[in-house]
Write a structure and sequence with these properties.
This protein is α/β, with parallel strands linked by helices. The chain folds into two domains: 97 residues, no CATH class; 194 residues, Vaccinia Virus protein VP39 (Rossmann fold), CATH 3.40.50.150. 34% of the residues lie in helices and 29% in strands. The strands form four sheets. A six-stranded antiparallel sheet has the order 1-2-3-4-5-6, covered by helices on one side. A six-stranded mixed sheet has the order 10-9-11-12-16-15, sandwiched between helices. Helix 4 runs parallel beside helix 5 and helix 5 packs parallel to helix 6. The longest helix is centred in the middle third of the chain and has 17 residues. The termini are far apart.
Length: 309
């Protein structure tokens, strides 16, 4: 099977992967009925399947309330990824901190680039909007660039703009560089280590700031920090572009979004789909005016904000 075919097949089952994690939670949790807290040396291995997806796990420590597992999957191939199940909730860790959702849902290619099918699908519709709202020239700062698929696609289509990708994860910064080299792009700067909650940001100025699919997989404090940091780096009239799934007026816009929200909150209670109106209200207090809200494919929304003078 070709690499492209494998990616397409994996994508067709991507929506099930969160179900795999919930299966893992249930299967591992049931062992706590037979293991006491002082049995720290207990080890158990197992596998959980859902369609073509598979996670292999080894229990490192288990008590009646918490389980630490070493987890591997064919998609992210990250040795030492840790799954912590505590009080019925599942979280991911690796040696550098909380395991990014992209590494659970994405795929690491043989050449070191990370790939997600969702980024491949949405990069076209997002670009069509960016072509209309971004300035013709200047510097665009992307927050949480992830795999690098977006910035590579945008920079190739908009060569008059300079692009500054960023990510707090070192392996994603390497992936971004690999995508940029593969596309031979001269208008993309080296990715910087940027955590929205860590000030000052390693970017003093930008003409536009993009943040795609971050707000729902981060605590609310990250949204607050994003708006503060964007206000600091943007000039008057500068564009802040947000993209992702949101609730509207306190309601989910589709059953699939509601299910996704439930899965996110089961993984981390600080995560979840935000009310778009709450984000816009918070942005107003930070000095941004709402320019437009655009409905996007797959029940997502683009939010265009302008920094007030």
């Amino acid at each position: 099977m070709s690499r492209g075919a494998r990616q397409a097949l994996a994508d067709s089952h991507a929506v099930r992967r969160m179900g795999v994690l919930q299966r893992l939670l249930r299967e591992a949790s049931c062992l706590t009925h037979h293991i006491t807290a002082n049995q720290a040396s207990y080890e158990q291995t197992g596998r959980v399947r859902c369609g073509i997806d598979q996670l292999s796990f080894r229990i490192l420590r288990c008590s009646r309330r918490e389980i630490d597992l070493s987890v591997r999957s064919p998609d992210h191939r990250e040795a030492g990824a840790m799954c912590v199940i505590s009080r019925g909730r599942l979280s991911w860790r690796n040696s550098s901190g909380w395991f990014p959702m992209l590494k659970v849902l994405g795929q690491k290619l043989d050449d070191g680039r990370w790939f997600t099918a969702s980024a491949e699908r949405n990069k076209g519709p997002i670009l069509a909007l960016l072509e209309r709202i971004l300035p013709r020239t200047g510097l665009v700062l992307e927050i949480g660039s992830g795999t690098g698929q977006h910035v590579a696609h945008f920079a190739r289509a908009l060569p008059e703009l300079n692009w500054q990708p960023s990510d707090a994860d070192a392996s994603f910064r390497e992936s971004i560089q690999s995508w940029v080299r593969r596309e031979n792009l001269g208008n993309v700067h080296a990715p910087v280590d940027l955590d929205v909650c860590r000030f000052p940001w390693p970017a003093a100025h930008a003409d536009a700031v993009l943040c795609i699919n971050m707000i729902h997989v981060a605590p609310w404090a990250a949204t607050e920090a994003l708006l503060t940091g964007a206000k600091d780096v943007l000039g008057d009239g500068g564009v802040l572009f947000l993209y992702g799934p949101y609730r509207r007026f306190g309601r989910h816009t589709a059953p699939s979004n509601e299910a996704f929200d439930t899965q996110l909150r089961a993984s981390d209670p600080a995560w979840g789909l935000r009310d778009l109106e709450a984000v816009v209200e918070l942005a107003a207090t930070a000095g941004f005016a709402l320019a437009e809200v655009v409905a996007m494919p797959a029940n997502n929304f683009s939010v265009v904000l302008l920094k007030r003078s």
